Amino acid sequence: MRLKLALEVLGLLALAALIAVMPQLVSSFTAYEMATVGMYFIALLGLSILTGYSGQISLGHGAFMAIGGYTTAVLSVNGVYGHHIRDLWTIPIAGVVAGVAGLLVGIPALRLSGLYLALITFGIAVSFRQIPLKFDHFLGGTSGKVLSLLKTPFGLSATPNNWIYYLTWGIAFVLLVAAWLFVRGKPGRTLKAIRDSEIAAASSGISLARYKTLAFAMSAFYAGVAGSLYAIARGFMNPDVFPIVLSVYLVAALALGGVDSFLGLIVGASAIYVLVNRTADVTQWINHLPAVNLNPQRPGMPDVIFGAVLIVVLIILPTGVGGALRRLFGPLTSRLYSKS
Amino acid sequence: MYIAAFTWTEFAQQITAGVRQGAVFAGLALALVIIYRSTRAINFAQGEMATFTTFVCWSLMNHGLSFWAAFPIVLVIAFVGGVTIERTIIRPVENGPVITIVIVTLGLALLLNGLMSVIWGGGNRPFNGPFSTRTIDVGGVPISVQDIGIVAVSFVLVGLLALFFRFTKLGLGLRAAALNRDSSELVGVRVGWMLAFGWGLAAVLGAVAGMMVAPILFLDPNMMQTILLYAFAAAVLGGLDSPVGAVVGGLLLGVAITLLGRYVGFIGDTLKLPTALLLILLVLLVKPNGLFGRVAVRRV
Predict the structure, then answer these.
(1) Is the dihedral of CA A113, A116, A122, A123 positive or negative?
(2) How far apart are CA A188 and CA A62, in angstroms?
(3) pLDDT in tens, B161-195
(4) CB contact under 8 A, A248 and B277
(5) Cβ distance A322 to A258 under 8 Å?
(6) Within the 56-75 window of chain A, which residues sit less than 8 Å (CB to CB) from chain B?
(7) Spatial distance between the Cα atoms of A45 and B99, rounded to a whole number of angstroms
(8) What kind and span of H or E run contains A334?
(9) Is some CB atom of chain B closer than 8 A to the CB atom of A214?
(10) What is the mean pLDDT of chain B?
């Protein structure tokens, strides 16, 4: 086991180094794009704790991202008693607010099995956008809230794009390590026990209620942080910033990347980025194929591909890309582990 | 919060509008229930399947067919489509965890939604329904012909379906396959095809719901997204495994939501959806099997 630990720590260090040098290698705009990927990655990390380790499903994490985004927007634009809060400090608050919302959903979720939880959270995803429309004087309605322009604070010498890149991936790295420590320790083992058999877990004295709500709150916290960063990077917040379909994308990306594979999630996060932000480019790229002529004004093609890939992957590799890789390399690494 | 000015005529109109909405919810909820009974999963692509077939209807009408000429063609296409979907993409994951089936249907929803924008383009467009919006006087209450037509079509369809399930051998086979797979297989019911048939029927129900609601909502690829949530609420209210419950739940929900939206100022139009969500949550917490559902007994 010590070798496995060493490999994982090494992997994390390599990732940290890669994150640190990346902006030197790519353009400023690409850094901004990568920051966006990092935000989806953070949200997926949270979802992975929920689904991969506690076995609960949420089709509503787009709504928790929106809660984070709105918290940041309200605190930095409306302010508290006239004091505008610097957007950087709203990030943890956004996480906590979303986490509390997750706790509130997690408590009734205790009584609901997988299918019903899927229904409820889907309902949250679909109906959340009505809340800012209803309380439009406070949350800005459809016209939304304009945040201050993205700029580098504390006189640091990075461009705004590099700043949001380092901020996002810095937070993503910290949250990744936190998630890693969480799932490899006692809480992770407990959650896995619950996932595999609730009855057996309860019989061994595990409080199902405490751990399942904890997992829900934690994953909502991650989503809230991601949503807050997203709102800061966009500098704008309205109900369309986090569209309904984002919740579906998140679950789909999780299934593609493999529910309990943290690195597979980066692949999933990139897929979401393309789907949300680069649909027209994908259509144009597909048009380079022979005998294909799609209208870039009709940006449905990426959804078609994503949906088709998702279905095929679930039929062929039910554990996602991450799980498939693990099965491929599993025999090799498990022999390595057993030597140590 | 305020109570809007009240007249009995308007109240009666609201009730009819509610029943009309409820008929559409009931159709889609029934489709969900049929699939739930056979596959034990919820089809999150039900809305997209319905919208897709409605687009097919729109296309046929654009090519010069009248609505009632296009209607049976669309139903056949929907049925074949539903059967094909079950045979090709649901079948391989049928025995897997429920969550896998749910995610496959989500993938299907994405695929169909994208396909609609590729083929027909996004944005909404008017859809000329078969019924006029002229009102006729029913006992002093003006009711639109469209409302009556939608309710009539939905009821006839549900009635036909009930007769089919009750009095035909195929219907019996479908019920048997949903109730007990293994025993049905032993007595020679071709369970696999029965499940596919169920998906075909569900697609037909969805198609009718879509074609009925399109003249009111305008047609666009996301048309059924919110209707699907109401259908979930209706199905949960009635009991996910009860066809009668789906119809009753749909009608109750339609009337309740319309009245709440009209007479409770705080809810209005904007908070109708969250109210439906709250209803799902309440039903699941208080009476998880719904009004008509069988009480599930689980062996541990």
Answers:
(1) negative
(2) 24
(3) 888 888 888 888 888 888 788 888 888 888 888 88
(4) no
(5) yes
(6) 57, 59
(7) 19
(8) helix A320-339
(9) no
(10) 86
Contact B121 A123 (CB under 8 A): no
Instruction: Supply the ipTM of this predicted assembly.
Output: 0.84
Alpha-carbon separation of residue A318 from A235, A261, A305 (angstroms): 38, 13, 18
Interchain contact B100–A (C-beta under 8 A): yes
With a CB cutoff of 8 Å and minimum separation 6, the contacts of B118 are A294, A298, A300, A301, A304
**Does the structure show a pLDDT above 70 at B285?**
yes
Mutant choice from A315, A316, A319 vs B, greatest count of B C-beta within 10 A? A315
Q: How many helices (H) and strands (E) does chain B have?
A: 11, 2
Contact with chain A for residue B107, Cβ under 8 A: yes
Note whether A168 and A229 are within 8 A (CB).
yes
Structure token pair of residue A84:
């505008």
Q: Which DSSP helix (H) or strand (E) runs through B143?
A: strand B141-144
DSSP assignment of A202-261 equals HHTT--HHHHHHHHHHHHHHHHHHHHHHHHHHHTEE-TTTS-HHHHHHHHHHHHHH-TT-
pLDDT tier for residue A334 given thresholds of 50, 70 and 90: very low
Any B CB within 8 A of A200 CB:
no
User: How confident is residue A259, by pLDDT bands cut at 50, 70 and 90?
Assistant: low
pLDDT at A233 over 80: yes
User: B100 vs A298: CB contact, 8 Å cut-off?
Assistant: no
Q: Which amino acid is at B259?
A: L
Neighboring chain B residues of A111 at a CB cutoff of 8 Å = 284-285, 288
What is the reported pLDDT for A223? 94
Distance (Å, whole) CA B278 – CA B300 = 30
Q: Which of B103, B121, B226 sits opposite A255 (nearest CB)?
A: B103
d(CA B214, CA B232): 19
